């Protein structure tokens, strides 16, 4: 879901990594829903992608499901 939202905003992975002050590798793992971002990064992600409460809930649930 993050990847689709990023693409709809016309941001590259490199741009998002820079906006979030992450390495590209770290961001790619978040983009592919393979890693849960730290709280401060999650807050920036929500702001940069204008995520709604519903989208945040779906994202968190997906991450939890992927981890288990």
Describe the structure.
This protein is mainly α. Helix content is 72%, strand content 0%. The longest helix has 15 residues, at 53-67. The chain is globular, with a radius of gyration of 11 Å. It starts with a helix and ends with a helix.
Helix content: over 70%
Computed over alpha carbons, the radius of gyration is 11 Å
Can you give the mean pLDDT?
92
Shape: globular
- The H/E string reads HHHHH
Number of helices: 5
Total strands: the figure is 0
Derived from helix and strand composition plus strand pairing, the structural class reads mainly alpha
Q: How would a textbook summarize the main sheet?
A: none
Poorly predicted regions = none
User: What percent strand?
Assistant: under 5%
Distance between the termini: 18 Å
Short synopsis of the structure:
The chain is mainly α and 68 residues long. It contains 5 helices and no strands.
């Amino acid at each position: 879901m993050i990847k689709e939202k990023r693409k709809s905003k016309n941001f590259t992975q490199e741009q998002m990594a820079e906006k979030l002050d992450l390495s590209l590798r770290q961001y790619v793992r978040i983009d592919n829903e393979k890693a849960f971002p730290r709280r401060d990064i999650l807050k920036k992600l929500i702001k940069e992608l204008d995520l709604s409460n519903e989208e945040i809930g779906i994202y968190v649930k997906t991450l939890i499901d992927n981890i288990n």
